[in-house]
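Holo model, adenosine-5'-diphosphate. Inputs:
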Amino acid sequence: KENVRAAPAQILARPAPSASPSHCVREVERMRLRREAMREAVEEQRRSRADDDGTAEFQQMIAEYRQNLAAGARAPGDMHGGRATPPAAANAQRIRVVVRKRPLLAHERSNADYDTVTCAPGGRRIVVHEPKTRVDLQKAMESHAFDVDDVFSEEASTQELYERTVGALVAAMFDGCSATCFTYGQTGSGKTYTMLGKGAAGAVADAIAPSRALDGPDDAGLYHLAVRDCFEQLELLRREGVALFLAVSFFEVYCGGVHDLLRNRSTCRVLEDAQGEVQVRDLAEVVPDSLTHLLELTSAANAIRCVGTTSANEHSSRSHAVLQLTLRLAESGDSYGRFSLVDLAGSERAADCADAKRTTRNEGAEINKSLLCLKECIRALGAGQAYTPFRGSKLTQVLRDAFTGESARSVMIANVSPGSSSVEHTLNTLRYAMRLSAHSAADGGAS
Ligand code: ADP
Ligand code: MG
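Output:
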């Protein structure tokens, strides 16, 4: 390490060049050497840091685990994190819990981060490897396995996710049901990517060109896929003489308030009428005439979420965004079926309720309250309970339809980041997902 550090200094100590061409060549060469030496020094630092915290050793352990798994051997040291699927329960179809793992991003890889999440063969088990260093400095790895309804690896497209899970919710909406799809997870785990598609995920640049992205099949998010499906089905029904139309609203729930994203974040009132119906007043409802029209609306609306903040994720990670698709009868305008797509606030924000800054603390407390209440409401739905504690938070209040009535259907997508630096958050996300099932009273006994 010493030699490497000394190298740039030695090079710097050479005499200054004169302006002749040969000197210029030498100068360029010197700069190249200096750059190389610096790069080598940084690399060396990175390597030694990685050795200190056992990165190489942990990566080796994870690789062995995967080899065993592929060979069909019982994976050693598995700790069962929980099971989301209630065994043969009549209500199993009402809530589905799936996990989506995003790929390790280039900047994470170059920061010596590595993949700590394994999608087991069979597509229903996800394993999180937790690196541990014992008091005697021995490295150990704990592997936590979670069983869910479906697992989508980093290679799966949003299209696949749609076909296997979310598409059924659009079909349910056309059957007159109230359907809801949530993306849950820490900030940066791919919630907005899943909803909006590539290029649009929190990208402030989209404020400038809202309709730029989202035209290739790989670019499509759930908004795109669900609405495309809606338009196709509406067209089929129209030919059969059934007159329905699609109305769209898009709002965010932030600190207990509802703000219209189609009207520059203007505040809406939430009222509950004598029949217990919840109404969001002053909320714009747009009837999009095409898929492109809708994508422009959602993309521009999402850009509004990012305006005025320094980083794309700063505000959006503190609010829940709800895209609501409502099927209405052409004649009366009455609601026939509804599908809400909810991009939840960053789950790690719930811990901000102990933050020193008052605003952050309040935001954290609201997020904590709404995510806990959401869990209770979904559990109540799964258990077929008559009483749902939806009044416990603004989010659950405005989503009341999602938890009440025979015909409510939900899909929870738990988004996880694979990096070693996210292990704790990833475990928290999966534990939350496990507890959504009303049958998981024992909570699986995760460590
Ligand atoms: P969140 O909304 O949960 O905070 P984002 O959706 O903004 O997270 O995703 C964080 C980053 O990861 C973005 O740069 C996004 O493009 C990228 N990303 C997320 N999911 C995927 C995926 N499945 N494939 C490729 N990149 C992804
Ligand atoms: Mg987001």
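Residues 37 and 401 are 63 Å apart (CA to CA). The two ends are 40 Å apart (CA to CA).
Archived with the compound record.
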